[in-house]
Amino acid sequence: MEGSEKIYQPIDCDYYDRLEAWATMHTICLLVFRDENGEEQTVSGRIEDLYALNKVEYLRMDNGLLIRLDQLLSVNGTPLPGAC
């Protein structure tokens, strides 16, 4: 994906806290996000981990799916607000 990587935009801090709470409580979540092609995708499952790598924050689902946090559109029907 040379040249196609977009600059990471940190998500809202309160929303990140909400993601951590869902992960800690092992809540089954419905996530809507944009994939690497810009297509809207929906997935259901538990959030296994939240972590940063090279200044980009990621979410790992229990099925192994990795999602950049700035690609999220909504979780459990709650849309992402502006950046932190």
Structure notes:
It is a single chain. The chain has a six-stranded antiparallel β-sheet. 13% of the residues are buried. Helices cover 14% and strands 43% of the residues. The chain has one domain: SH3 type barrels (Roll), CATH 2.30.30.100. It has one helix and six strands, in the order αββββββ. The protein has 84 residues and is mainly beta. Strand 1 and strand 2 form a beta hairpin. The termini are far apart. It comes from Chitinophaga niabensis. This is Transcriptional antiterminator, Rof.
Helix content percent band: 10-25%
CATH class: Mainly Beta
Order of adjacent strands in the largest pleated sheet: 4-3-2-1-5-6
General shape: globular
Number of strands: 6
Number of domains: 1
- How many helices in DSSP terms? 1
InterPro entries: Rof-like_sf, Rof/RNase_P-like
Protein name: Transcriptional antiterminator, Rof
Features:
single chain, 84 residues, Rof-like_sf, six-stranded antiparallel sheet, SH3 type barrels, 14% helix, globular, Transcriptional antiterminator, Rof, 1 helix, mainly beta
Question: TL;DR of this structure?
Answer:
By secondary structure, the protein is mainly β. It is 14% helix and 43% strand. The protein has a 6-stranded antiparallel beta sheet.
Topology:
Blueprint: H1 13-24, E1 28-34, E2 40-53, E3 56-61, E4 66-68, E5 72-75, E6 78-79
Antiparallel strand pairs: 1-2, 1-5, 2-3, 3-4, 5-6
